[in-house]
Specification:
Blueprint lengths: L1 H17 L2 H7 L3 H13 L3 H10 L6 H8 L1 H12 L3 H11 L1 H14 L4 E9 L2 H14 L3 E6 L6 H15 L3 E7 L4 H4 L2 H9 L3 E5 L19 E4 L3 E5 L15 E2 L2 E5 L1 H18 L17 E8 L7 H12 L3 E5 L3 E2 L2 H12 L3 E7 L5 H8 L2 H6 L3 E5 L3 E2 L3 E4 L3 E5 L3 E2 H6 L2 E7 L1 H15 L2 E3 L2 H4 L3 H11 L6
Parallel strand pairs: 2-3, 3-4, 7-14, 10-12, 11-17, 12-13
Antiparallel strand pairs: 1-8, 1-9, 2-5, 5-6, 6-8, 9-18, 10-15, 13-19, 15-16, 16-18
Amino acid sequence: MWATINNHIFITLYILSLFFIPYIITQKKNPVSALAWIMATVLLPLVGPLFYLFFGTNRIRNRGLAKLFSNTRMRKKLREIESRSEPDTTIERFLQADSAMADIIKICKKFSFFDAVADNQLELLIDPEATYQRLEEIIAEAKHEIAINFYIFEADRIGMHFLTLLQEKVKAGVAVYFLYDAIGSRRLGFRRRLLRDLRRAGIQVSEFLALRNFFKLWNLNLRNHRKIVVVDGQTAVVGSLNIGAEFLSNDKESWRETSVLVKGPAAAQLRWVFSEDWYTATGQVLAAPQLGKHIKYGNSVAQVVASGPDERGQAVYHAFIMALATAQKTVYLTTPYFIPDHAFELALKLAALRDVDVRLLAPGRSDHPFVRLAGRSYYNDLLENGVQIYEYNGGILHAKMMTVDGLLTIIGSANTDIRSFRYNFEVNLQVYDHDFACQAEQVFFRDLQQSHRLGEKFLQRSAPARFGENVFRLTSPLL
């Protein structure tokens, strides 16, 4: 009897799983991906659909993006911010001088909605200690508003120090909005008493894509990986660095991070990105930052490129591909997690075959060793097609940066991996400035001095080593 009941249960579950196949077909545009998930559903009834809900969904409707861009007043305010940076002078001259950069700006505006803006002052930050110090300084300077969004925010001595600073600013009349990712900052999310105390102190706190709703299992896979601090809509820090004591150098290890401090119109664009995320998390529309007299902070042209599993799609991905396709002289790429899709890998190889000096700097030791092994499985084809690959030995490499032709610099939260391109909410700052690119290139070559170049010895590594790398490559979309 029990055997008969079990058979009936199995048949019922199997039939229910088959009803899930039409949903997969409508959601997955890539035939290979769709076929893989269909096979998983057929061969693993119930388990396959559950895995799809957790890891297969890569699209959601971003309420914040839809709300703010449907708000005519808010759209007008954004264009006002962008138009105040002398587009008819600085940027027009720049676009006329370099058609390739003009095409990149156009593509990024189409997919990410932000235009290039001039008059920005930029400061490259490559040391976690120094970056935290600069964050303290700009928080102390805040007069009206502080907006903070981090993937990882630890409530350790570093995190608590910043939370104390924020509470002091609230007492001084500054509005503070604090957003953290529900997965990346899960330990903070469990500190209910601390969060309650922060709210009582006047800090407006929210988590992004909370996991409490059983009917939104896909929230687990779609994360807000951005790291943004914006002060008064005019000063911002964006990059790779999270908040926590573990990211500071100690006797055992040091972290290599890259962020950029922005003063100018690009900071207002970052505030817009934060506003979208805040509305998605809370349903609250933040007022546009107050604009005083226009200030020419500096001479750099910059453009915020935001992307995610929403209406923007793969804006960051398109920006990378476009930059690689237009490169004429150099491509210097630093990434902690390298898991490219076929198009990205091909773009790197084609650039190298066009005699572009293409160099990839990846970790020699990673905080996610399985990701490193998966990334290494791509190295053979790249090396054989002329891409130079280096592994960093100076600590844990977590920086994300690319320079192209000594003119374009990309810095932000996005890794060059499938997760950043398809599943995460990311934000990069693209800087179109020769002097800034030179600074970034100097940092890149300094890092190369603490790295070793892969060559024939790597290509001749053992069969078991290659097998292990390819095993982890199979799980690339989940890593």
